[in-house]
């Protein structure tokens, strides 16, 4: 299957934005990707033809009910969940994780342990730290290797024991791009009798997620990181969602997933999620754009999603190699993370760098003036910036590529960064 990046870019209206007469380049993707035309249309269509609260005895409410069923089924296909009722929508991954940590904490007691990593976004750290503080739990930490920012798996295995009740780990680092061996981590967690909670926010746009194959207990992601609206999604094994008692208003405390979805949901954005999933599927096959054809257990759509991520990975690998090669040639530039091409299958096309003589903010500002959008700071992966002692000097410059980026954008960016560094 071929990948036509020019055709792909036609799905994203914002890619036509210009600054000083030149197209801008979105390398700020780890903070949120651009949104497809189909997603925008689906949101508009919902607000125009179906805007109502759910479970009402009238047309627009019935349309909202149908839309919610469709969206849960679409996300079940994207994550390969066995049951759409294992999909929970919320404002964002952080909110969902805080809520879940509070509920899981009901079942834990002093002396129990949880295992966290120094490589994670704080949304998969602070909810568990605060839960541990409330419940009198012991927190153990997994370190990572300085040389390539990969988790120390021996350290992880050594800290699992019969008291470990939960292991929280990121699928991929939003700071340095490392893809963690989550399947092995989940296996080790289960062998110790612990739950496994996976933060897949950063991994979502880059690689195929298969919760059935992973056998994770929970997995959280954010649709605005993979070409959709600002929403969070939580997968939870049905047995856990049915057993664990949520903090919930009284009229809606039993049926899943409703009992885990707080308040009136952002219906228009959820309508956009279905279009987002269908866009991804369209990259791998024949799934029509916003067809309204979502079904529970749509194996055809799942097959298209699997094919889509194959071509996404192939295109991003080309971008990754081009960017890494060019960055290495800039004097005074340091890349944090995996730099050996032999191990590029263990990283995303996300780079954290620093250049001697510049703060990350100075670099991001000068690049932004030239129409290249990047991030500076810690991106809430504060344990990483503290570990390398760069937090107080501005963290990193982060460059993040996704499948709608091009070789030409990479080359133009490298030229601009080389000019800035040479001043």
Comma- or semicolon-separated keywords:
423 residues, alpha/beta, Aspartate Aminotransferase, domain 1, Aspartate Aminotransferase, domain 2, 2 domains, seven-stranded mixed β-sheet, four-stranded antiparallel β-sheet, 14 helices, 39% helix
Alpha carbon gap, first and last residue = 44 Å
What proportion of the residues is helical, as a percent range? Answer: 25-40%
Strand order of the main beta sheet, please?
A: 4-10-9-8-7-5-6
Question: Secondary-structure element order, as H and E?
Answer: HEEEHHEHEHEHEHEHEEHHHEEHEEHEH
**Beta strand count:** 15
How many helix segments? 14
Evaluate the radius of gyration: 21 Å
The pLDDT mean sits at: 95
Structural class: alpha/beta
List low-pLDDT spans.
287-296
Classified in CATH, the superfamily of the largest domain is Type I PLP-dependent aspartate aminotransferase-like (Major domain)
Overall 3D geometry?
globular
**What can be said about the biggest beta sheet?**
7 strands, mixed
- So what's the CATH class of the largest domain? Alpha Beta
What is the CATH topology descriptor of the largest domain? Aspartate Aminotransferase, domain 2
Name given to the CATH architecture of the largest domain: 3-Layer(aba) Sandwich
Number of domains: 2
Strand content: 5-15%
């Amino acid at each position: 299957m071929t990948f036509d990046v020019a055709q792909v870019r036609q799905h994203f209206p914002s890619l036509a934005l210009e600054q000083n007469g030149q197209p801008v380049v979105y390398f700020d993707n780890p903070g949120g990707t651009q949104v497809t035309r189909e997603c925008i249309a689906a949101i508009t269509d919902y607000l125009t033809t179906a805007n109502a609260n759910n479970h009402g005895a009238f047309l627009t409410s019935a349309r909202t009910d149908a839309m919610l069923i469709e969206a849960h089924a679409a996300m079940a296909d994207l994550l390969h969940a066995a049951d759409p009722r294992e999909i929970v929508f919320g404002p964002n991954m952080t909110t969902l994780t805080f809520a879940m940590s509070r509920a899981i904490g009901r079942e834990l007691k002093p002396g129990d342990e949880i295992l966290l990593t120094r490589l994670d976004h704080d949304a998969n750290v602070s909810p568990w730290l605060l839960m541990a503080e409330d419940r009198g739990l012991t927190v153990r930490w997994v370190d990572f290797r300085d040389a390539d920012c990969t988790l120390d798996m021996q350290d992880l295995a050594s800290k699992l024991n019969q008291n470990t009740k939960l292991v929280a780990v990121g699928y991929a680092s939003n700071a340095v791009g490392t893809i963690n061996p989550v399947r092995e981590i989940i296996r080790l967690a289960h062998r110790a009798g612990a739950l496994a909670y996976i933060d897949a926010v950063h991994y979502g746009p880059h690689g195929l997620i298969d919760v059935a194959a992973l056998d994770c207990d929970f997995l959280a992601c954010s649709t605005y990181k993979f070409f959709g609206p600002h929403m969070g999604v939580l997968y939870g094994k049905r047995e856990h969602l049915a057993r664990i008692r949520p903090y919930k208003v009284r009229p809606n405390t039993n049926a899943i997933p409703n009992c885990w979805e707080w308040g009136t949901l952002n219906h228009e954005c959820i309508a956009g999620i279905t279009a987002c999933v269908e866009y991804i599927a369209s990259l791998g096959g024949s799934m029509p754009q916003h067809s309204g054809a979502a079904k529970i257990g749509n194996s055809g759509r799942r097959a298209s999603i699997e094919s889509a991520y194959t071509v996404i990975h192939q295109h991003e690998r080309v971008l990754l190699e081009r960017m890494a090669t060019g960055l290495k040639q800039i004097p005074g530039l340091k890349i944090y993370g995996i730099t050996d091409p032999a191990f590029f299958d263990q990283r995303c096309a996300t780079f954290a760098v620093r250049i001697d003589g510049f703060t990350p903010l100075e670099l991001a500002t000068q690049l932004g003036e030239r129409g290249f959008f990047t991030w500076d700071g810690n991106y809430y992966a504060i344990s990483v910036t503290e570990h390398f002692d760069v937090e107080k000097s501005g963290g990193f410059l982060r460059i993040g590529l996704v499948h709608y980026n091009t070789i030409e954008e990479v080359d133009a960016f490298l030229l601009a960064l080389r000019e800035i560094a040479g001043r």
